[in-house]
Design brief:
Arc Repressor Mutant, subunit A; 10 strands; 3 domains; D-Maltodextrin-Binding Protein, domain 2; 322 residues; globular; two-stranded antiparallel ribbon; alpha/beta; single chain
């Protein structure tokens, strides 16, 4: 038994995936599979079994992991003897998203529980140009922003002029959500001419709200009389019921719509793209790539929440954190 095999077992337990564990250890997936197979043959029992939630430890694997964690702590203690503490500094700039916050939480859990001196930061921004300037002057290492899909190429070009790189993380489409049977969406088609007659609720998770709502509606000669900007809280769904208002946001989970009796329709021409932006040839490339992978992972989980019950999502999300 080798320490590399123990490290692999611990990584598989955290990631619930051999391929993800291999990435975190900077080895290939076939190499990881062969290392695990050799260890299980040496031990005489299986350590993991596949399930819907990912790779899970067997009963023997659970007991093995307890000893493995003890060994890992001992190896770390030995390696730190007269060794200077490594300093980790990493600043994230982002629009207000659940998945970017979860990814940052994962980063904190990882480095705050290891022998590092850390300086981690997470700052919420609403303006892409401000984020670019902060990256340029060293006030941030990565920014996760949003724009219309058809504007992404121009955002890439603007970033390149500032010696910044962009990488797509995922896509969203805005939806109009209101009570089922509401005149706005009755008949399966959004009636734009009625928008001005009802209160508009906008979500903080959509930056530059006017760009995606009022400006669009203005083209149709529609003026919004009453609008409310709220964070992702249940109060806004209750207010939709009580006021007859409508919400323009990224997709509302199916479980939430079922709870409050809501329905949704896609908002025309509202395809949005979430992208990462960072400096070229950054010395923190490994941390940047790690954070982007985590964002993609949690974005997938949050999208899957739309077809899960809340209890299933909470369970799945907790397992995804490793």
């Amino acid at each position: 038994m080798k320490t590399e095999q123990i490290a692999l077992v611990l990584a598989i337990s955290r990631e619930q995936s051999i391929s993800e564990a291999a990435k975190s250890l900077f080895i290939s997936q076939p190499t990881a599979s062969n290392m695990l197979k050799a260890l299980e043959e040496e031990l005489g029992y299986s350590l993991f079994v596949r399930s819907k939630a990912g790779i899970q430890p067997t009963d023997e694997g659970t007991e093995f992991l307890e000893y493995a964690r003890t060994i890992e702590r001992s190896v770390k203690a030995i390696s730190q003897i007269r060794k200077p503490v490594r300093r980790i500094e990493f600043k994230v700039l982002s629009h207000k998203y659940d998945f970017t916050e979860l990814a940052f939480e994962r980063l904190c859990e990882k480095y705050l529980t290891r022998d590092y001196a850390v300086d981690l930061g997470y700052h919420v921004l609403t303006n892409t140009d401000q984020a670019a300037r902060m990256l340029e002057n060293g006030s941030g290492d990565i920014a996760v922003m949003l724009c219309r899909k058809k504007l992404y190429e121009s955002q890439r070009n603007l970033a390149a002029k500032r010696q910044l790189v962009t990488k797509a993380i995922g896509e969203f489409s805005l939806e109009v959500t209101c009570n089922r049977g509401h005149p706005l969406i009755e008949g399966g088609t959004i009636r734009r001419e009625l928008f001005g007659k009802y209160p508009l609720f906008c979500s903080i998770d959509i930056p530059d709200v006017d760009m995606y709502t009022s400006v669009d509606l203005a083209r149709y000669g529609i003026e919004i009389q009453n609008s409310v900007i709220m964070d992702r809280v249940d109060a806004r769904f209750r207010l939709l019921q009580k006021t007859g208002g409508y919400l323009v946001s990224t997709p509302v989970p199916a479980s939430v719509k079922a709870t409050y009796g809501l329905g949704s329709l896609p908002f025309e021409d509202s395809d949005l793209i979430v992208f990462a932006m960072f400096r070229k040839s950054s010395q923190k490339e490994a941390l940047i790539n790690e954070y982007i992978r985590s964002c993609m992972k949690y974005l997938t989980l949050l999208k899957e929440k739309r077809s899960m019950t809340d209890d299933e999502y909470i369970l799945y999300s907790d397992q995804g954190r490793g």
